[in-house]
């Protein structure tokens, strides 16, 4: 605690003189004390206007005071080698002021720290601008959302359907900023302080595509400012990285505030981001919150500055925090700057040895508070992460380390989140008389398994956490992490969606979990309905038992969209054309997951390109285009809005769907969904307006398209003839039905198939829906009695497979005819059986099963988890972990076993092992693994590249190897490729060593 006492010894005398400003020209001043002594002398305030800086303070009466403006990165002792920017004389009662132009010696002084010197001795300590009165570029009220519900968004269209009100978007500065200009198509130049800096045009465009759809929908967007290692030739990472960062530490690095070059690059980047994303016209989208770094109390991992005492870490980190506040303030006065904390409070989140890697979150808050009050306080806020105490266990209501005393609780989790507010309301923690704001910018609930019960536990965790936070007025938002489960997140399954194992992406969405529905409706009139199950899971009878201030009447803060019927057979009569695209795009623009819109031969084409890792572009997800009408359209006399949509028939995306969303000036939204024939032609879609209150003023229209597979979809869809129709013809044909088919036992003859039909049309279904034989599959009965099925209703039927010869028994299809239109529907069937290897070594008895450390490895241990992805064994309960010796990244790291009795694998055709490692090698371009089997002097070996932080299969074909009947040595070796890093100490993991029989 010594650092806090030392900082307070500076802070207290400065606070005692906080009212010591002399008169400032044109600026109301605070009164000065009657005299100045050694304890109160020094700068007490720095005011910045558009043209000037005014420094005020106290000094011995009549003394000549020299004022120095120091760059933020230089030590305050550096004043002696510089020229003062102003000199003045203290009044007899000890007050002084100095008026300085905003620039001196061609240097912008806004970011400087100021020091007063009398007779060659500094008075007090340095002081930054703490009274900023500049005119910002943009001026608008801080955006407000009716809900606290937020998400770290991966798929913007899904976020809109979820009703997200707050969002967190990562901004990786290593991808954002370049060292040199790559030309107009690849670089965006930006001038700051007379120097030109460069930003990656493709990365900025990607940020635009994430941010703009969110803010267009009213979400309050926060940018999470982080830095990863990046050895790309033109990445600014080497300049932006803190010079003391330990490359063997964690993956997120602290920003460089130690050198003039680092400070300049960081400041330019913040001004660029603030200027782009706080525009009043929202041209690129709007972001108003800026979170500096990630979980800075766990700095060695998530704000890597090397091993440092807390006070030294904070001196450097606080400079980045202050620069962010000042830089964003130039663009938008109400921009908010946040620091980021883990759930650890009075104890650090990591080991105490070695020292200087992890700090208690409370000490970080206290240290920042003392530091900023000592050198000019400002509005920095807190982005807290109150995960459950065990991130793998979502039952936070059972946390034992989250206690009610802010001075002693080891952690602040969902269970005791109110403790944080109690601490921040203490008088010594206030800024300008108010507690610092709090957002919850990253936290989530794990799914501890793949069962329905695991989904219920995850969803119950979210429900209780949301309700607690909803009724805590001191917390502005609850931003959930994650949107989709991530394969390399230490075994955690935090998403609203399961990941798709069949895809190589780290977080490709497969199916929604239960929590997806809970998240969607928890802030609406359906809130209690979708969370009722959670009471039993948690073990309570009523939410008031665990939620302070519980009021069920206050839950519905967001209106649900109105579901409107949509016809694909109706045609407009007496229609008024809104858009025909004969004169260009007519204001239509890209929206979710789209790259470009263009007018082409009198229609609008929306294009999109699948990018590796950008899972928002998979076929099953919406992508689209929208328009804000120049004047709201009055559709009060219209029966429907109609348009034509075309999805090319060469798109291998399964079934086709379109959705139209209409936004009213009254704040209401109507939406109609349509299933489209897959013939590649123009399809008419008519959306019923008659039951929607917002029809009197339509201010925005959005059109989405999607398929129903997880294929990569690069391509386009087209829109034309957007009209308001006073009447429709052909609406009596009910063809817009959604059909889902599943065969839990497979698609063999006699197997049952469950078929669910939902009517999305304008009118009730009037005739049976025919099930035609296609793809070699026929069912009985061949007609589904859906007559009378009303719009918005569903009905389920059970049929039996009569004949079955599909092209792929694991991807069969049925054909349906409704209203004269035929649709093809894939039938969900159990996946093909996965061959299971006969185990040789699985380590599930908790032992190493004879495996030993070889060259480059210190110890081997059977463990149940690992620090990084995938976090869990490849199968079973244990895996083998090897801790490498510190040494060259190119040197082999080996684990091996010499069986007590030679292994007889005479029946084997293939022997496999699963390999992983974590602890990235700085500069490495990849990693290689070698798998070796030996029988006496006879060896069989294979070397192949592999990917860290995931299980990789490595296999040997032993079908023709004579030695397979007497294997007496098994060995796994790995090393890095591409760079020789001399002090590397990764961990190597092996699991599920086994064999498959010969074909």
TrEMBL record:
Q: Give residue ranges for domain DUF5722.
A: 141-545
Keyword tags:
Signal
| Pfam families, per the entry | DUF5722 (PF18989)
Q: Where is the signal peptide?
A: 1-31
Q: Which InterPro entries match?
A: DUF5722, GH
**Superkingdom to which the source organism belongs:** Bacteria
Q: What is this protein called?
A: DUF5722 domain-containing protein
Report the source organism. Answer: Jiangella rhizosphaerae
């Amino acid at each position: 605690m010594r650092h806090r006492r030392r900082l307070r010894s500076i802070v207290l005398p400065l606070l005692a003189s906080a009212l010591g400003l002399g008169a400032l020209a044109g600026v109301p001043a605070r009164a000065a004390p009657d005299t100045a002594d050694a304890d109160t002398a020094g700068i007490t305030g720095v005011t910045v206007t558009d043209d000037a800086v005014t420094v005020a303070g106290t000094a011995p009466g009549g003394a000549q005071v020299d004022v120095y403006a120091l760059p933020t990165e230089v030590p305050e002792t550096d004043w002696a080698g510089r020229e003062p920017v102003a000199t003045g004389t203290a009044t007899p009662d000890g007050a002084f002021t100095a008026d300085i132009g905003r620039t001196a010696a061609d240097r912008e002084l806004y970011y400087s720290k100021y020091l007063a010197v009398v007779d060659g001795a500094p008075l007090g300590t340095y002081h930054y601008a703490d009274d900023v009165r500049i005119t910002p570029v943009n001026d608008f009220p801080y955006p407000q959302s009716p809900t606290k519900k937020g998400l770290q968004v991966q798929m913007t269209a899904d976020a809109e359907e979820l009703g997200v009100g707050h969002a967190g978007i990562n901004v990786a500065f290593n991808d954002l900023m370049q060292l040199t200009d790559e030309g107009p198509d690849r670089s965006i130049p930006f001038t700051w302080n007379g120097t030109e800096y460069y930003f990656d045009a493709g990365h900025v465009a990607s940020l635009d595509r994430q941010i703009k759809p969110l803010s267009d929908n009213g979400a309050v967007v926060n940018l999470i400012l982080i830095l990863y290692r990046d050895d790309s030739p033109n990445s600014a990472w080497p300049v932006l990285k803190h010079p003391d960062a330990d490359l063997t530490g964690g993956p997120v690095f602290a920003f460089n505030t130690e050198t003039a070059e680092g400070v300049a690059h960081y400041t330019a980047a913040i001004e660029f981001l603030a200027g782009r994303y706080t525009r009043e016209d929202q041209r690129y989208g709007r972001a108003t919150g800026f979170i500096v770094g990630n979980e800075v109390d766990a700095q060695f991992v998530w704000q890597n500055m090397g091993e440092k005492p807390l006070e030294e870490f904070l001196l450097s980190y606080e400079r980045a925090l202050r620069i962010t506040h000042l830089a964003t303030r130039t663009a938008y006065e109400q921009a908010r700057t946040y620091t980021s904390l883990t759930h650890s409070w009075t104890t650090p989140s990591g080991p105490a040895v070695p020292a200087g890697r992890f700090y208690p979150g409370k000490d970080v808050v206290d240290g920042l508070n003392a530091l900023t009050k000592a050198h000019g306080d400002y509005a920095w806020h807190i982005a807290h992460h109150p995960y459950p105490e065990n991130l793998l266990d979502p039952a936070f209501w059972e946390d034992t380390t989250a206690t009610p005393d802010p001075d002693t609780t080891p952690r602040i989790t969902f269970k005791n989140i109110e403790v944080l507010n109690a601490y921040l309301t203490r008088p010594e923690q206030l800024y300008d008389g108010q507690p610092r704001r709090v957002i919850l910018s990253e936290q989530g609930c794990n799914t501890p398994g793949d069962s329905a019960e695991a989904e219920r536990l995850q969803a119950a965790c979210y429900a209780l956490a949301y309700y607690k936070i909803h009724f805590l007025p001191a917390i502005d938002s609850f931003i959930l992490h994650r949107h989709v489960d991530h394969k390399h997140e230490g075994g955690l399954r935090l998403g609203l969606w399961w990941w798709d194992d069949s895809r190589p992406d780290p977080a490709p969405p497969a199916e929604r979990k239960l929590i997806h529905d809970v998240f969607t409706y928890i802030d609406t009139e359906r809130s209690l309905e979708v969370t009722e199950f959670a009471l039993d899971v948690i073990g309570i009878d009523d939410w008031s038992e665990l939620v302070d201030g519980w009021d069920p009447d206050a839950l519905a803060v967001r209106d649900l969209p109105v579901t409107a019927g949509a016809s694909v057979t109706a045609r407009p009569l007496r229609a008024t054309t809104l858009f025909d695209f004969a004169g260009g795009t007519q204001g239509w623009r890209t929206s979710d997951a789209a790259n470009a819109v263009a007018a082409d031969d009198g229609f609008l084409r929306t294009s999109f390109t699948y990018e590796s890792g950008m899972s928002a572009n998979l076929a099953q997800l919406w992508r689209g285009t929208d328009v804000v009408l120049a004047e709201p359209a009055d559709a009060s006399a219209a029966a429907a809005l109609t348009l034509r949509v075309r999805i090319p028939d060469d798109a291998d995306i399964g079934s086709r769907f379109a959705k139209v969303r209409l936004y009213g000036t009254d704040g209401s939204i109507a939406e109609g969904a349509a299933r489209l024939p897959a013939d590649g032609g123009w399809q008419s879609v008519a959306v019923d307006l008659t039951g929607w209150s917002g029809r009197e003023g339509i201010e925005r229209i959005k059109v989405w398209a999607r398929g129903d597979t997880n294929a990569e979809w690069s391509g386009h869809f087209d829109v034309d003839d957007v009209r308001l129709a006073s009447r429709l013809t052909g609406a009596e044909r009910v063809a817009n039905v959604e059909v889902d088919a599943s065969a839990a036992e497979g698609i063999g003859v006699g197997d049952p198939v469950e078929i669910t039909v939902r009517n999305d049309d304008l009118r009730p279904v009037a005739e049976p829906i025919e099930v035609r034989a296609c793809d070699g599959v026929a069912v009985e009965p061949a007609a589904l009695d859906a007559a009378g099925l009303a719009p918005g209703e569903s009905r389920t039927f059970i049929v039996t497979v009569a004949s079955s010869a599909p092209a792929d028994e694991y991807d069969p299809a049925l054909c349906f005819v409704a209203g004269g239109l035929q649709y093809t529907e894939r039938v969900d069937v159990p996946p093909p059986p996965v061959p299971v290897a006969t185990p040789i070594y699985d380590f599930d008895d908790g032992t190493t099963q004879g495996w030993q450390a070889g060259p480059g490895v210190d110890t081997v241990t059977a463990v149940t988890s690992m620090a990084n992805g995938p976090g869990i064994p490849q199968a079973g309960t244990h895996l083998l972990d090897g801790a490498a010796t510190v040494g060259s990244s190119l040197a082999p790291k080996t684990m091996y076993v010499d069986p007590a009795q030679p292994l007889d694998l005479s029946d084997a055709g293939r022997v496999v092992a699963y390999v992983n490692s974590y602890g990235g090698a700085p500069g490495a371009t990849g990693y290689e693994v070698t798998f070796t089997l030996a029988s006496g002097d006879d060896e069989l070996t294979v070397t192949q590249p592999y990917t860290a932080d995931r299980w990789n299969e490595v296999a040997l074909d032993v079908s023709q190897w004579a030695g397979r009947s007497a294997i007496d040595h098994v060995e796994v070796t790995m090393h890095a490729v591409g760079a020789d890093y001399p002090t590397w100490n990764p961990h190597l993991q092996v699991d599920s060593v086994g064999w498959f029989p010969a074909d």
